Amino acid sequence: SSIRPLPAPAEDLDLLLKQSEQAELLGAWGRHGDGTAKLALVSFTLTPPTREGVAIVATDRGLSVRGASTTGLTPRDQLDVAQALAAIAQLPEAAVYVAAEASYPLAKLAALLGALAGREVTLATNLSADTSLRPRAATRVTRCPEGLPNTTEPEGALPGAALLEGVAPLRAAGADCLLSGDARGAAGGRLTVGLRIDARGQVSQACVVHDELHDDAVAGCVTELAHRLTFPPPSPAGVVDVELPVALRPGSRVVQPPLCAD
């Protein structure tokens, strides 16, 4: 910002690449990476949320490929376009962050972008090593991969229609939880939430049974919504255990307008 500008980034990226086996990738939907990589790239064009991110960095020595900490991608340097595409082929759904040194020829950059047609691509610039990236706040989530714990309380019953009506607020608002997630979580996926409904129709326990997103912030948001659900009192009186599948999908993509009409 003009009030508090960021430190100027390095213009020569070869040394930075030599020191970095991974990349920290930041975009509108959050971060790919765990905050430990020295090479940090921030996107300045729009891309939808994806589960993975990978970087192609263009320098005077060729192309370098770096993955975020979650990808397990082997770092490679001094590649041509075909070699770079082959190196990221194992991550077909990953967003590709493309960054280049200022002196990199524009025609070569255009050729690289043309070769990436069909992939989700965002243009990115590197951040200075002096830039402070705050670590993500930890979120505590109750998980129950084996299902809800056993209880000695009597078993109640609720008709299916009452259950569907009671979980409607969660199905309506659940997708908003993606906004609290990191880049992987923001891409969406399926959760299964275990609910224990008590004799008053209140949710006494909510836990995550299955999770495709692997994002604690999203899972924590969903279970918080689940705790607020209300149902009719079970009849006969007692507790009702439910496993609720929840499909979370990001909202419609905002299409970025072209810079030139042609």
Largest sheet: 8 strands, mixed
**Pattern of helices and strands:** HEEEEEEHEHEHHEEHE
Coarse shape = elongated
Q: Name the average pLDDT.
A: 86
Multimeric status of the protein: single chain
Judged by helices, strands and strand pairing, the structural class is: alpha/beta
The helix fraction, in percent, is: 10-25%
Share of β-strand residues: 25-35%
Main sheet: which strands, in order across? 2-1-3-8-7-4-5-6
Q: Treating each run of at least 4 consecutive H or I residues as one helix, how many helices?
A: 6
Number of strands: 11
The N- and C-terminal alpha carbons lie at a distance of 31 Å
Using brief descriptors, characterize the structure shown.
single chain, 8-stranded mixed β-sheet, elongated, 262 residues, 6 helices, 3-stranded antiparallel β-sheet, alpha/beta, disordered C terminus
How would you characterize the overall build of this protein?
This protein is an alpha/beta fold and 262 residues long. Helix content is 20%, strand content 26%. The chain has six helices and eleven strands. The chain has helices spanning 14-18, 81-87, 106-115, 160-173, 183-186, 216-227, and strands at 23-27, 30-32, 39-43, 53-59, 62-67, 76-79, 95-100, 121-126, 189-197, 203-211, 240-248. The chain has an eight-stranded mixed β-sheet. The two termini are 31 Å apart. The relative contact order is 0.15. Residues 252-262 have low confidence and may be disordered.
